[in-house]
Write a structure and sequence with these properties.
Elements: H1 11-15, H2 30-36, H3 58-62, H4 69-83, H5 88-100, E1 118-121, H6 124-129, H7 131-143, H8 159-163, H9 167-181, E2 186-189, H10 192-202, E3 207-208, H11 209-212, E4 218-220, E5 225-228, H12 232-238, H13 242-253, E6 256-258, H14 273-276, H15 278-294, E7 299-302, H16 305-312, E8 318-320, E9 325-327
Parallel strand pairs: 1-2, 2-3, 5-6, 5-7, 7-8
Antiparallel strand pairs: 4-9
Helix pairs in contact: 2-4, 10-12
The structure holds iron/sulfur cluster (2 copies).
């Protein structure tokens, strides 16, 4: 690890959306959790407040020493998982995975098992909470000329479990999924967190839908003025240019799009914050919704089920990019 390069500049602390939220004051912050605590034997006394992180990577982007702070925090989470009792929301999520193979239950039935070469992997939140997003992404993929299956055999990618330190459970999901994936040449997702997990942890070349969009022509299906909600894992995890792909595709399609400086601030939905600390998660979402309302937009366009769910809960109109475009022949 590279924590020794820390120059104590506090840029990571200033960049952290949780630490800067009124509901997040008990979070010790990225430098304490990722850099300082792991060096000392009493590190685990930091307790569950160390889990108040959305894994948004903003601290890493702000760090002048390029320290992999989130990786270090993940390692501490693994140690904490054996040392402190699970939060009720995290426990529920683990039980759901044990019982159903996914973090949330789902009554999705539109599976596609036609022996195509591409598997569309929607992720737990899409299947369980936003099935209309899964259907629209599948429809868009088909109209982009990408025939695909959606398999009930593909389970949770394991990312949420790693975020709560449950490495063994995440690893057994990975084994299951790799068996399912072996029948396919390509894996496409509509969740940046899943794509990141498949790419960085499984080591397979998966793509997020947004990464496949440039080069084709689209038409907008929405009226009015919209802003972007740029998912953390899409921009800071997968591709720093992802927001630009999204914007270019939307503007070319005729969407009246406004770019806000806050568009890539975390929605508060990731990293286990929503399940573990729902009040803090809601507070982060409210603050973003306030910004969008002040900008006078009709709603926001995103490419992440967590952003759609968490901002939508605060009353903002949030659509996935697949819900606002059709392919022009
Ligand atoms: S990943 Fe995001 S939420 Fe977590 S410590 Fe870093 S800036 Fe804060
Ligand atoms: S931004 Fe990087 S160098 Fe500065 S305090 Fe944080 S971890 Fe240390």
């Amino acid at each position: 690890m590279n924590e020794g390069r820390c120059i104590k500049c506090s840029s990571c602390m200033r960049a952290c959306p949780v630490l800067n939220d009124p509901q997040g004051k008990t979070f010790p912050g990225p430098r304490t959790v990722g850099i300082d605590a792991p060096r000392f034997p009493e590190a685990l006394s930091i307790g569950n407040d160390a889990l108040m992180c959305t894994m948004c990577h903003a601290c890493e982007w702000a760090c002048p020493s390029s320290i992999t702070i989130t990786r270090s925090m993940s390692m501490l989470r693994e140690r904490l998982a054996d040392a402190v009792p699970s939060l009720p929301g995290h426990q529920r999520m683990r039980e759901n995975v044990r019982e159903y193979g996914r973090t949330v239950t789902s009554d999705f039935t539109d599976w596609k098992e036609s022996g195509e070469r591409t598997l569309y992997f929607p992720g737990c939140i899409g299947l369980g909470r936003l099935p209309e997003l899964v259907r629209s992404a599948s429809k868009l993929l088909s109209s982009m000329g990408i025939p695909h299956d959606i398999s009930p055999q593909a389970k949770c990618c394991g990312s949420p479990l790693l975020k709560v330190g449950a490495k063994q459970e995440a690893s057994s999901l990975q084994q299951n999924n790799l068996e399912t994936f072996s029948a396919y040449d390509n894996i496409v997702t509509s969740c940046p967190g899943c794509t990141y997990q498949l790419r960085e942890v499984y080591g397979i070349e998966s793509k997020h839908l947004v990464e496949l969009m440039p080069g084709k022509k689209y038409r907008s299906t929405v009226e009015g003025r919209w802003a972007l909600q740029v998912p953390c894992h899409l921009k800071r995890g997968l591709d720093p240019w992802a927001a630009e792909y999204m914007a270019a595709v939307l503007v070319q399609a005729g969407v009246d799009l406004v770019r806000l400086p806050e568009e890539d601030l975390c929605c508060g939905g990731g990293g286990g914050l929503l399940s573990g600390f729902p009040d803090t998660s809601a507070s982060l979402a409210r603050s973003k919704v306030r910004t969008y309302r002040e900008a006078g937009v009709r709603g926001v366009i995103t490419a992440c089920p967590f952003c759609a769910l968490n901002l939508g809960r605060e009353g903002l109109l949030v659509l996935d990019i697949s819900q606002v475009l059709t392919v022009v022949d």
